[in-house]
Structures are given as C-alpha cells and as structure tokens.
Design a protein that fits this description.
The chain is α+β, with helices and mostly antiparallel strands and 721 residues long. Strands 1, 2, 3, 4, 5, 6, 7, 8, 9, 10 and 11 form an eleven-stranded antiparallel beta sheet that branches. Strands 14-13-19-20-21-18-17 form a seven-stranded antiparallel beta sheet. The chain has a two-stranded parallel ribbon with strand order 12-22. Strand 7 (168-175) and strand 8 (180-189) form a beta hairpin. It starts with a helix and ends with a strand.
Length: 721
C-alpha cells in the first residue's frame, strides 16, 4: 500500500518545472497544476477535464490507428485528425483514376464514406495504478531476469483487464523509467471510414521545405468517422453499422484567437527521454543521429527521383516517403539544437550534483562509472545497428527477404508440413503487400548505395565474412560505385521475389537450397545472420544495462531531492496526456519576430505553379482571389487564418491532437513542432519551444467552400460568440 501511495503522490503533487513544460496525466492533475491552468485561462472544472463516471473531454480524445491522436467533433462519431495521420488510408483508397491524394475527397453523404481497413479508434475508459504488483514481483531481481519477470507480470495484468469479446484492450505503461506502472484500459472500434481529405497540395503544402518550420501554411487535416453495431458495441466493418454516439464531442469555435489566449492540447505523445544522460546525448550527436540522417537522405534521394515525374510512382511511394522524410529532418535538427543549447554540459552538471550526493551510498555511488563502461563497450557496434535498421533493411526488397528467415528455419528444421505451409502462406501474403509498394528502380539504387556505404563506414572486422571478397571477385573494385550498381542490378534481375514464375515454383515446393541461393535472400541473410550471430548480443546487453541504470538514476534523483521529485512528470509513453500554454508569437533570433498566425495571404505568397511542394488547386486560387471566406474570416486580420502557434509541450503521437480553448472548444489541430526546439524529446526549451497548429477555421473553410461538404459542417456544434 505504501508503494501505491508513494507513486500516486509523486504524480498528483506535480508542479510545473518550466514555463509550459509538461505532458501531464489528466487523471493525476495536482491542485497546483490545475490552479496554474486556471490562472492561464482555463474555465473548466477538473471533472470536466477528466472523469471516469461522467462525460468529460477525455471521452472525445482517441488513439487514431495506433500512431496518432484524433478527436470526436460531432454526435455522429466524426473524427478530425491530421492529413499525415490519414495519409496511408487515403493512399490505399486511391487509384490513378481516383487519386484522392492528388484531388482530395469529400463525402456528401455517409453512404459515400470509404472503409479504411486496419484503422481503429481507441477510447480510454480506465486507468489503474499497478506499481505495487509489478515491483513486488520484480523485487530483488536485476538484468534479464528482472526484465522477464516484469514482462510476465505486465502481460498477466493486461490479460486480466482485457476482454476480447467486448473489444476491451489493456496496456501497462512503465513510467519514470520503471519506477511506476499504470494500466490503461481502452475500448477499440475498428470500423473507421474516410469522410473527407483535402488534396495533398493543401494537406502537405510546403512539403519537406516547410516541415518543422514556422511560418507554416499547411492544411494538415483529414476527416474520418467511427461506426458501431446497431446495439452500440464495437464491430468490424459492416454496411449495417451505424455512426458512433460518443459520450462527449468537442464543440468547434470559429470566434478566432488572440496572442496570449489559453491553449490546451490533449493527446497521445509517443515518446520523450527528458531524463537522458550525458552519455546518451554524446551517443546521439556523434553516431546515432548523423548515421540515420545520412542513410535516410540517400533513400529519399532515390525515391524522389522516381516520384517527381510519374504520378503512379508518386502514389505508390507517397506514404513511405513521407514517413522517412519526417524524421530525417527531425533528427538532423535535434542534433543541431542539442549542440546549440549545450545540453550535454547541462546534463554533466546535473550528474556531477548527483554524484556528490551518491558518494558513500553503495546503491548509487558507482552508477555513473558503471554506466560509462556500458556505453564504452557498446559504442564500437552502435553504428552497425543503425546501418542494419536504416540502411540494409531500409531497402524494401532486402527487408522482405530477411523476413524469409522464418521460412528457411521451418524448412531446415524439417517441421511438419502444416508448419511449413503456415510459413509459406505468411510469406505469400507479405510478398503481395511488399510488391504493391515496390519501385524497382529506386530500391535497386538504394541497395547499390547502401552496400557501398556499409563497406566504407562499418569496421571491416564487423563485415559479413567473405561477402565483400565475393563481391569483388565477381563484380569489381569495392571502391568503385559501378561495382555496386552492377551487383544490385544482378540481384533485382535474378531474385525469385520479383519473378512470379520462380516464386510460384518455390512456394509450391519449398526447398531451403533454392531459398539460400536466391540473390536477394543471400544478401539479406548474410547481413542479418552476421548481426544476429556476433553483434546483437552487445545491443541486448547494453539495452538491459541502460534500462537498469536509468531506473536506478531516476529512483536516486527522487530520493536526493524530494521537492524536485514532486515537480517531475513522466516521459511520454503514448498514453493520454494534457499540456497547456498560450497562443504566442516568438523571436527566434536577432531582429526577427514571428507572428502567432499565418493567413491566406501567406499561402498565395508561397504559391509556385507546378512546383512539387508549393502548387495549389485551381479552386482554392479562385476562392482566395474572390476573398470568399464566408463566416470563417478573421475580422481582425480581414483574412482567412490558416495556422497558429502555441507554447504547448507535445511530441510525435500528438499529431492530430485537438487544441482546445479555456471553455473546452476546438480551435485547431496540432501537427508539428518548430525547428528551433527540435531537442524537445530530450530537453524542453522554455524560450523557443512552439507547437504548430492548423486553425480550425481553415479546416472548416476547406470542407465547406472548397469541398462543398456542407453536410459535414452541419454536424458540428459551432461556437460563434
């Protein structure tokens, strides 16, 4: 019981550490935090923010698809989320003839809405503290044994709180690096349908150039609807299903915003590491981030070369390209900001203070010495891991080929015919999906480039034995780009994975010798087995030690300064959080000040006819020229406001999160952070951190004036005064 009280008090008594920093668990909002929210402009009670027994804002917030946030905005289950969150579903619904990515889509009735297989909406129903149960089970254990015990006990808790029959799903989340555990219980609805999406020339306006940048003019939104069975329960897709009747939905305000207005963001931030050490900062800056950026830069270059001139290829690769590009720029900016703001030195200073306190305490005094040793032992292999994940298996062909290892194992171990058939059927299904997105030209170029990059960047002692010697013998000089191009061409020309006749012959009569001789499998297997057999153990050992040391460090920090412990909030873990701040302009550098909103005037200023990133639909240009902004015009600006910025604390996973005013009304959708604060996953910057949001008035204008979907507007509860 004492352990439960300790962890709940730890969370409930949190206060703010810096201006606007914090991703707070809405269940455990302390009185001091709530008072601060009220001072900043909140007009709602705690129970209106979060309640188990009554409808509250939390009931309108959903996990969208397992990777984004969405919000319910009507009493008929209408969902607003970001354009990039609905991007894959839009691409999957599109064809060259009906290209919804290019042209947009607006349903004029519920019958026109498009089913989105694989998408789901999860509603949070309950949170329980299970810290005592987990820590008691793991008491006295460490390393792999502790990890396994925690895995087993959390799996048991998840099973206890879950119920497949009622689509109830529970997930235990580890908070404060394993010092607290909460179980989050959700109700999952799996009939989700696309109701509206603007053309990507609006939804992605500015492309990679404007990504993570302010001023921003992107209409980053899409619209879906969640359906339920006629008796009000979650159900798979059926034409007989009816729109969800939610416990709560967000009214939509078109009153407009001012600099300094209160802003609150609910959502599911994916992950932060605010308690990272100086060791981790150095690892990121020196090895992890630059290697990842270099490899993604290469992949994007070859993909873009094929996409820019062929609409079919653009549609085929659009989703993967967008995903790769997003965090390519993020990790590049993160490194620069970590260096710029001297985060490494700040961490060192905090650790020196901790060490002074830890001296003479056996549990903690050697923590940083041992932690440093763990990093020293791991560092020589760390670049190799990035190359495996982002390089070798950044190739769709090689990634799929590597997955055939399971099939090889089933055949070689002479499993039952049923086991082999199961593995073959799984491989067939996976291959069919891979081929839909496989662009041979770009992938072949990626394979050639990454094999050469690996050869030059990875320690020769870590190379697959004999691989590069054989490549040299058969294809030429290992320092010549042409060698790798010839080799890649040979792989793609001869692999059975890309040849239906060869593939059918193999799957009809699975033979390990045939599989092992396949050139794509041979390459993928050489790198995968080399990593698994020799170096993955170092990764696993480091991860175990790093997790254990992280848990002990945070435990020690809480003991060292109990006042500070009460001010701490847990890292983001894709669990519901609320952050608050204000709509706010900012000055990023000398003599530059950014306004808090962008307008249609700025959209037109950036417009470049025919440009991949800055083209615009003809209808938007026509409406803008006529200044046909209707009830969505901002009277103060005498223009249509497109986006705005706030000082809220968010991160990945918050995409699609509602930006809510002090009365609980929707004023916008969060979709990005600003470049000057891309170190936010590790350290929040109280001066420069800003959240970029699309103004809901621009969203509604696109739906109404551009899309003509007044039926969707009529569903909303508009707040005009």
């Amino acid at each position: 019981m004492k352990k439960i009280l300790l962890t709940v008090v730890l969370a409930v008594t949190m206060v703010r550490t810096f201006a606007d920093e914090g991703m707070w668990l809405p269940l455990l909002l302390g009185q001091q935090v709530y008072n601060d929210m009220v001072k900043r402009g909140l007009k709602l009670t705690k129970e209106q923010l979060y309640s188990v027994n009554k409808a509250s804002i939390k009931d309108a917030i959903i996990i969208f698809g397992g990777f984004c946030t969405g919000e319910i905005v009507s009493n008929e289950g209408l969902i607003f989320t970001n354009h990039h969150c609905g991007y894959d579903a839009t691409a999957n619904a599109s064809t060259v003839e009906h290209n919804y990515l290019k042209d947009g889509f607006w349903s004029k009735s519920k019958q026109e809405e498009i089913p989105s297989p694989g998408l789901y909406a999860e509603f949070l129903t309950e949170i329980k503290d299970v810290t005592a149960e987990v820590l008691d089970a793991a008491k006295g254990l460490s390393g792999l044994e502790r990890q396994q015990k925690v895995t087993d006990i959390t799996a048991a808790i998840n099973k206890r709180y879950s119920d497949e029959a009622t689509s109830t799903i529970a997930r235990v989340s580890s908070l404060f690096k394993g010092n607290q555990y909460l179980v989050f219980v959700y109700k999952r609805f799996s009939d989700i349908r696309l109701a509206g999406v603007p053309p990507e020339s609006i939804g992605k306006y500015g492309g990679d150039t404007d990504n993570w940048e302010w001023p921003r003019h992107t209409g980053d939104f899409s619209i879906f609807r969640v359906y339920m069975s006629k008796d009000g329960k979650p159900a798979d897709y059926s034409p007989e299903n009816v729109p969800l009747k939610p416990k709560h939905f967000l009214p939509v305000s078109i009153k407009g915003i001012k600099d300094g207005d209160y802003a609150m963001i609910y959502g599911y931030p994916g992950g932060t590491n605010r308690y990272e050490t100086s060791f981790g900062i150095k690892q990121k800056i020196d090895i992890d981030n630059p290697t990842l950026v270099k490899l993604r830069d290469m992949r994007l270059k070859y993909m873009f070369a094929q996409m820019k001139d062929d609409p079919a290829v653009k549609l085929q690769l659009a989703s993967d390209y967008a995903s790769i590009a997003n965090y390519w720029k993020f990790f590049d900016g993160e490194s620069k900001q970590l260096i710029k703001y001297n985060v490494y030195d700040q961490k060192k200073a905090a650790e020196a203070k901790f060490q002074t306190w830890a001296n003479g305490k056996p549990e903690y005094e050697n923590l940083f010495k041992d932690w440093g040793t763990a990093y020293d032992q791991w560092r020589p292999y760390s670049k190799h891991r990035v190359y495996i994940n982002e390089g070798i298996f950044g190739s769709p062909l090689l990634a799929f080929a590597a997955s055939l290892q399971r099939l090889e194992t089933a055949i070689v171990q002479k499993g039952s015919s049923a086991d082999i058939k199961k593995a073959v059927d799984a491989a067939k299904e996976a291959r069919a999906e891979v081929l839909k997105g496989e662009n041979k030209t770009s992938d072949q170029n990626i394979v050639a480039a990454v094999l050469m990059m690996y050869f030059k960047d990875i320690d020769k002692a870590q190379h697959p034995i004999g691989f590069y010697d054989n490549l040299k013998s058969n294809f030429g000089d290992l320092n010549d780009e042409a060698t790798y191009k010839k080799y890649a061409a040979s792989i793609f020309a001869n692999t059975m994975i890309l040849d239906n006749a060869k593939w059918d012959a193999f799957t009809n009569n699975p033979d390990a010798t045939v599989l092992q001789a396949d050139p794509a499998y041979a390459v993928a297997s050489a790198f995968l087995k080399n990593w698994q057999g020799k170096f993955m153990q170092y990764s696993q050992q480091f991860t175990l030690k790093n997790n254990e040391f992280g848990r002990m460090y945070l435990k020690g920090v809480m003991q060292m300064d109990t006042v500070k412990a009460k001010k701490m909030y847990p890292d983001a873990t894709f669990t519901m959080r609320v952050s608050f701040g204000n709509v706010k302009s900012y000055a990023p550098r000398d003599a530059v000040k950014y306004d808090y909103v962008t307008t249609m005037k700025g959209i037109l200023e950036k417009y470049q006819p025919g440009d991949y990133e800055f083209d615009l639909p003809a209808k938007l240009l026509e409406l803008a020229k006529k200044r046909d902004f209707g009830q969505y015009i901002d009277k103060q600006r005498n223009d249509l406001v497109v986006g705005f910025i706030t000082t809220n604390d968010i991160t990945g996973g918050n995409s699609g999160s509602p930006v809510i005013d002090g009365m609980g009304n929707l004023i916008g959708l969060a979709f990005d952070g600003n470049y000057e604060a891309l170190s936010h996953k590790i350290q929040f910057d109280p001066v420069y951190n800003h959240t970029i949001c699309v103004d809901v008035r621009y969203v509604l204008w696109c739906i109404d004036k551009l899309g003509g979907a007044t039926n969707l507007i009529n569903e909303l509860k508009l707040v005009k005064q």
